[in-house]
Amino acid sequence: MLCGVRMGRGSCIGVLSAAIAGCSGIPDASDVSMDIHRGMSYEEVFVMAGAYEMEQEFKGSATALQFCSGKGSGTEFVIVWFVDNRVEGLTEQERETPRGKRCGWMFEEVDWALAPDEVRAELFIQ
Question: Does pTM top 0.70 for this prediction?
Answer without folding.
Answer: yes
